[in-house]
Structure formats: C-alpha cells, structure tokens
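ZP: hey, is the magnesium ion complex queued? I don't see it on the tracker
AM: it wasn't, my bad. submitting now with these inputs:
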Amino acid sequence: MIKKFLTFSIALLSLTSLEAMSQGKNKVIAHRGAWKNTGVTENTIGALEHAIKLGCYGSEFDVHMSADSVVFVHHDHAFKGTHIEKTNAKELSQIKLPDGEFMPTLEAYLKAGVKQKKTRLILEIKTSSISKERSLALATKCVELVKKMKAEKITDYIAFDFDVCLKVKELAPKAHVEYLNGDKTPAEIKAAGLSGIDYHYNVLKKNENYISEIRDLKLTTNVWTVNDESMMKWFLEKNVNYITTNEPELLLKISK
Ligand code: MG
C-alpha cells in the first residue's frame, strides 16, 4: 500500500514538474541580439553578449557573403552605400558600426558564441540580392563555419528562402532549421523535413491553427518580431515555442 502510494506520488510529482518546466520554459529570442535597451549596435558581438548576460534562450543575427566569399554579420545588404555582396572582405573589415565596433565576421561571432552553452545562436541566412547560387553558397559556407568553430550544438538556422532551408538540412541533417517566409503550411514544412516555422505575427494571428498543427507534428513555432506586451501575452498563452523580440528584457520579465 505504502509502495503504491509512493509510486503514485512520484508520478504526480514528475507530471507537475514537467508542466511547470514547459510553462516556465525560456522562450525569449533577442532579435539581432540585445541592442535596443543596452546602447550597443544590433548584430554585433556586443549585442550577442548582452543577450547572453540577460539569459535569453537565443540570440538572432543575420549574415551575408562578401564578393570574395567571407561571411559577415549584418542585417541590410549594404552599409552606408557599401554593398556587402559586391565588396571584398578586406574593405568590409574596416567598417566601423555606430557603436564603434567593426562589422563582425561570422567566424568571430561564432567564436564569441561558443564561449558559453546557455544562449543559442539563431543564424539567419539572408537571401542574396544577386543570385540563387550565392544564397546556396552562403548556406554551405555557414554550415562549414559552424562545424569548424564547433558551434553545431548551439546553432539553429532560419531563412526566408525555402531552398536555403533545404540545403542546410541536406548538409546538416541534425540541425534545427525553421522557415521564415510564412507561405508554407505545417504539413508542407513537415513533408520537407524542416524543424519548424518562424513566421511573422500577422501570419500566425491569421492562421492560429498553425500553432496547434505544428505542435501535433512535433515541430516548433517561433514568431517575429513581437515587441508589444499584449501581443507577447497572446503568444505566451498560445504556448508557442519561441518569441523573437527587440524587447528581450520585457519578455523575460512577463514570461517568468
Ligand atoms: Mg533576422
């Protein structure tokens, strides 16, 4: 009788802690790092370090490839008229960003990221403005660099180009790859072998069913870019896996 009671209590306890774990799970992905409230420039190693210090689940960043095939971390295709894809690495390395940091290479960024294991690196492979071939070449370079820097275990990939997502999955079958563009159904994502969706909040507000469908398929839902407190609460209630935001401090506070 006592034994039965004990078994029941342990089962109940583990169930309760499992529920608590999933509810209190850190879902916060800092969009381009934690820059908005910290005074550093977005997409810099400084912004990554602030996201790590805050204890975010992940820190998102964007990459492009120089004319001579070096990968740089930056959001836009160009910086003050210098087009990344049409410029060599030597010249790009001289670019000073608003907070005084140099535009980081992906290699330097990963080197900073692998110093810790808590915050994941959410690598967005930007679509080339020149050609599909360059988008796929960038995807290949990213997977190679992540392997070289021993960052595979803490790196996830996102991309707007579906073929880029497929390329990453082909080269790194174990990698977590989410599609950004919003035009594929959960069933299509599953059929393609991808890990989940990372859609704009309007897409998920219009297609609320995607969140439960994705969960049933054992894939993940990430949503961008949620900066408004009431919308954060809406997505927390829907229990999406991750929320990408420019306000990681606020989201961390309300999701505790
Ligand atoms: Mg991005």
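AM: back. The pocket of magnesium ion is lined by residues 60, 62, 124 (CB under 6 Å).
ZP: great, adding it to the tracker
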